[in-house]
Amino acid sequence: SSYGPKMPLAVDCTAELIRCKVLDSSGRLKSHELILSYGLALVRFVNLITERKQKMVSIPLRQLAREVDIPIWVVDLRHELTHGKLPRLALCRKGCDVVLDWLRKTYWSRQLGNNLCEESEDEEEEQEGVEANAELDNDAWE
């Protein structure tokens, strides 16, 4: 809060995503409300993180995401949230978990001396499974 309006993007995005998870676990919101809440947080994350890499010439969002190692399916999820039919809540939850993990590895581990980057092989395999399932879910939108 001492940053005021100049809060680092990663902190702002993390706070918004954690807020969604807290609201989700509270049981006070309906599924549609949770999708909108997760959706806004995910759209803001992709837009804010990739915006820093945008140049004078417009660069496709998928290319910018690849450059910063954001999974392409998260960008596709952002696209659906912005322009298409709203996805299922389960996919929004997976997106939130993947993005929080990206923030942990990319931002928070640096702040805390890389202690958070030590993952077991089980966690890496679980992450690969989440990404594979999300790609399958992508087909379900259509």
From TrEMBL:
GO terms for cellular component: Las1 complex; preribosome, large subunit precursor. InterPro entries: Las1 (IPR007174). Transmembrane segments: none annotated. One of its GO terms (biological process) is maturation of 5.8S rRNA. One of its GO terms (molecular function) is endonuclease activity. It holds the Pfam family Las1. Residues 118-142 are annotated as: Disordered. This is LAS1L protein. The lineage of its organism: Eukaryota, Metazoa, Chordata, Craniata, Vertebrata.
